[in-house]
Amino acid sequence: NMGAGDEAKGKRLQPHWSPPDGTEQPKLRLYNSLTRTKEVFIPQHSNRVLWYCCGPTVYDASHMGHARSYISFDILRRILMDYFKYDVFYCMNITDIDDKIIKRARQTHLLEQYRAKKPSATQILQDVLSAREPFKAKLAETTDPDKKQMFERLDTAVTTALTPLQGAAQSGTVDATIQSQAQVLLEEAKDLLAEWLDSQFGSQVTENSIFSLLPKYWEGEFHKDMDALNVLPPDVLTRVSEYVPEIVEFVKKIVNNGYGYESNGSVYFDTVKFDTSSGHAYAKLVPEAVGDQKALQEGEGDLSISADRLSEKRSQNDFALWKASKPGEPSWESPWGKGRPGWHIECSAMAGSILGSSMDIHGGGFDLRFPHHDNELAQSEAYFENDHWVRYFLHTGHLTIAGCKMSKSLKNFITIKDALARHTARQLRLAFLMHSWKDTLDYSINTMESAIQYEKFMNEFFLNVKDILRTPTDFTGQFEKWAVEEVELNKSFYEKKEAVHEALCDNIDTRSALEEMRTLVGQSNSYMATRKAAKLLPNRVLLQSIARYLTHMFQTFGAIEGTEPIGFPVGTNGQNVDLESTVMPYLNVLADFREGVRKIAREQKVTEVLQLCDTVRDDVLPELGVRMEDHEGKLVLTLLITKEFPEEKKKKKEKALRKKRDEEMAKQAKMKVPPSEMFRSETEKYSSFDDTGFPTRDAEGKEISKGQAKKLRKLYEAQEKLYNEYLQSNQNGS
Fold first, then answer.
1. β 48-53/87-94 pair status
2. Where is region (Disordered) located (predicted)?
């Protein structure tokens, strides 16, 4: 330690060092349904994130509505784990005991029994006519337009199948034709026949195993679909059927804590008692829905809303924790007699037994908020006597099909298998990444077209970079001097990485992140084009860094499987070999051989051989997914992720022209909108405006933040400029 004496002796000291100011880092915020705002994400214990996700009720094929939820949560989970480096523990359930499953399993079983008896044509005709009576009554009283349309369609199909059979029966014909017509009728009328058989014999189906076969099959199909979509499996999977003893214990404690009561062998949750107890609140997510009987009854299930069941409750808002089993329903022993779990209690008991008294994240579809999730919260907080069973509640947005609600009645019910027959898992995932996880996603031709174009744009970039990296060089030769262009591109690279980070911190906004990545590729393409024009090779290390970063981001999003350092893997699904390194040497041999043959053919003027060489390049190789091009006398070989055909190129050109025309028209239309009107139409985003039409409050009545106002002001000014141009051109024209 030097003193003043040292200074006097002329010893020089190190000058004072000032630390940098640094910049404030953005924090991860998530949209929390418990507050309906973006909240800073703070795990309860260090870096560990306990996460529970509501899984499917397995009684039918998984559809795009399921994919909406599970792909979106897979994206969020991967980003939290692989980008933000949280230690995520992910638990998901399978609902394999439920009113829908019981009904479907019973009906399937009774219909199989009916078919096994090989009924005669007359018997089938008679039974369908009998089954039609209650069905007609149901059709008459249905008010839901979707359901009505579905029932009407079914009625028409049954009538069409009935007519020829009735005619034949009246004329006394008995032959093979009448038998085959009866089978057609049986197939068309199976839904209403199953319903009729169930109403007659359903109560006699008592064997528990009958109710487990159906969910077991559909659970298997669900896992296959998730695997095909590249959705990571959960760390823990809980099945309701394996947790009945835990559910019984859970219900017992709720009753002991004073929040549940037994009635006729069923147990109900006392919503009034819970809501009026200090430290508790019922319906935290959707308080305005309390008393919505339609939603409550849907939550209770078809088999649990008969008049006698409804009269067992102290308040109409109470819901079943444990249901006394009626004849024809599976049952388990309990202190209240034979019964089965209510729907909402299942998740509470399973999540509680795995994750304990409080979890960081609970996820599910938007339509599960009330009553399912609100009831889960109430039960669990009644059991644990706390007010924070879930810290952050995340709900994925709805999915529409070409602007319409997806339903079987509208015949736009798309299973995951249907979707994967049209598009790859990567294309579907890119479509999801290009939209906000919490808003409605429209699955349409346009949505998928945007995803396909995005994939192609990125893939072209990856192929170009790979081609540059294949140019031979020695070890030291790969490090080239940086000029202004490289410094500029690198600066841009860092800015884009920062912008992607900010987007992901902002409620995991993958849509903006993908746009920033697109811009980065656009800038890299311009840089490569400039170098090419100057007959110079682009800087390989810099481009490699950019391509590796983009590849890493796509891997993080789950859009690239495998460990390729750059780009989308080439080859069909399930091929784990690196196709590129395997086939490239052979392709190079073929290319060199073709070049040698062409040279001789040109010298000797053998046109047939030249034509054959062209055929190999233009027809044979593209069919196999290989593109061969001449670049300034240098032959470039590229492996494509999708095959390309000459007519496709023509279509692409036409499409580009159409797009340009459409963009021009859209711009013209946009110019005509005065800036004072541009935000007023967006009522789903804003609720009040100032005199100039500038938004002051959002849809929920909250004041627009400074940051948001700044962004909106830019848009407003840009529109002002456009509108003035429009007025100017009108004046000049007149």
1. parallel
2. 1-25, 651-709
Cis peptide, bond prior to residue 371, ω within 30 of zero: yes
**What backbone torsions phi and psi does residue 639 show, to the nearest 5 degrees?**
-90, 130
Predicted TM-score of the model (pTM): 0.79
Pairwise CA distance, residues 687 & 703, whole Å: 10
Residue pair 95/55 in contact (Cβ under 8 Å)? The answer is: yes
Which residues lie below 8 Å from residue 409, measured CB to CB, with a gap of 6+? 146, 147, 148, 149, 150, 153
pLDDT digits (tens, 9 = 90+) for 54-98: 999 999 999 999 999 999 999 999 999 999 999 999 999 999 999
Low-confidence ranges of the chain (pLDDT < 70): 1-8, 172-174, 305, 307-308, 408-411, 571-578, 631-634, 641-653, 733-734
What tokens does 289 get?
């829905």
Taking the CA atoms of 556, 561, 562 and 567 in sequence, report the sign of the dihedral they define: negative
CB atoms under 10 Å from CB of 511, counted, come to 15
> What's the token pair of residue 570?
């080439």
Q: How many C-beta atoms lie closer than 10 Å to residue 392's C-beta?
A: 21
pLDDT per residue as tens digits for the range 92-109: 999 999 988 999 999 999
Instruction: Give the H or E element holding residue 346.
Output: helix 343-355
Query: Are 262 and 375 contacting, i.e. CB atoms less than 8 angstroms apart?
Result: no
Are the CB atoms for 198 and 302 separated by under 8 Å? no
Token pair listed for 442 = 């429209």
Question: CA-CA distance, 544 to 555, in Å (whole number)?
Answer: 16
Nearest to 320 by CA among 396, 263, 386: 263
Task: Please choose, from the candidates 535, 523, 541, the residue with its C-alpha nearest in 3D space to the C-alpha of residue 485.
Answer: 523
One-letter identity of residue 712: L
**Spatial CA neighbour of 79 closest among 499, 505, 517, 569:** 505
**Interatomic CA distance for residues 560 and 596, integer angstroms:** 38
